[in-house]
UniProtKB/TrEMBL annotation:
Catalysed reaction, written as an equation: 2-C-methyl-D-erythritol 4-phosphate + CTP + H(+) = 4-CDP-2-C-methyl-D-erythritol + diphosphate
Gene from which the chain derives: ispD
GO molecular function: 2-C-methyl-D-erythritol 4-phosphate cytidylyltransferase activity
Native organism: Ramlibacter agri
Lineage, uppermost ranks: Bacteria, Pseudomonadati, Pseudomonadota, Betaproteobacteria, Burkholderiales
This protein's UniProt keywords: Isoprene biosynthesis, Nucleotidyltransferase, Transferase
Protein name, per record: 2-C-methyl-D-erythritol 4-phosphate cytidylyltransferase
Length: 235
């Protein structure tokens, strides 16, 4: 990391939205992030939440090279780049490169957020920023595991795991651009979140408690749940 970048007096906050997945578990005909939920394509709810946080200098959306959705629907002020990779980690690493091209420096904060977590709110994003902005490492939104946890083997319970101190990792996950770039390069393409890459460097990201509503739309039934929550909020 260049010293000049780190010495920048006021780090800015950028959002990076990986939006290049296929949604294979969702059972939809096309990518799940473009399914209509509560009257809008799912990803628009996600982008609206980030648009509601004035501290975010720029939002960058990473889509697959073959994705034409944003060209057909040019309504967002976010920067849309077609550099999605074969894994989420690759999409994020490619997006970081584009953020640098757009003017972000190593000392700036990047909030990486799944396009598929359309229930995030400006309040949750602000909570993450407020908690992490003065931290050496950064952190992530997360939810303490509410259920008893089992290990399964051939459809039967092999063991029960103590759930104390176990958290479900959510997004956004917020780290300095330079640190995250290095961490992802070292961690490889298979990691499923940014925190794992930072942890692999021996660092301990902050866990910032968020509610269960910030879930990731993953399975077919999740669309209905997301719809109900969003409609409930607009009432
Ligand atoms: N190569 C990939 C894979 C995933 N994602 C994004 O990462 C987020 C979280 O991933 P996940 O929920 O696993 O999405 P999918 O990969 O689309 O779903 P599935 O694993 O069911 O195929 C999503 O917003 C997805 O679009 C991405 O940008 N690039
Ligand atoms: C980043 C993430 O949302 C944290 O829960 C998640 O890891 C995304 O990918 P996954 O394949 O559904 O684990």
């Amino acid at each position: 990391m260049k010293a000049t970048d780190m010495n920048q007096t006021t780090p800015r906050f950028f959002a990076l939205i990986p939006c290049a997945g296929n949604g294979s578990r969702a059972g939809t005909a096309g990518p799940k992030q473009y399914e209509r939920v509560a009257g809008q394509p799912l990803v628009w709810h996600t982008l609206s939440a980030f648009a509601g946080v004035k501290r975010i200098a720029r939002t960058l959306v990473v889509v697959a090279p073959t994705d034409g959705f944003f060209e057909r629907n040019p309504t967002t002020s976010a920067l849309v780049v077609t550099c999605g990779g074969a894994t989420r980690a690759q999409s994020v690493a490619n997006g970081l490169r584009e953020l640098r091209r757009a003017g972000a420096v190593d000392g700036d904060w990047v909030l990486v957020h799944d396009a598929a977590r359309c229930l995030v709110t400006p309040e949750l994003i602000d909570r993450l920023i407020d908690t992490c902005a003065n931290d050496e490492v950064g952190g992530l939104l997360a939810h303490p595991l509410p259920d008893t946890l089992k290990i399964g083997e051939d459809g039967r319970v092999a063991a029960t795991v103590n759930r104390a101190n176990k958290w479900q990792a959510q997004t956004p996950q917020m780290f300095r651009l330079g640190m995250l770039r290095q961490a992802l390069e070292a961690a490889g393409d298979e990691i499923t979140d940014e925190s794992s890459a930072i942890e692999a460097m021996g660092l301990k990201p902050l866990l910032v408690e968020a509610g269960a509503q910030n879930f990731k739309v993953t399975y077919p039934e999740d669309f209905q749940m997301a719809e109900a929550v969003l409609r409930g909020r607009n009432r």
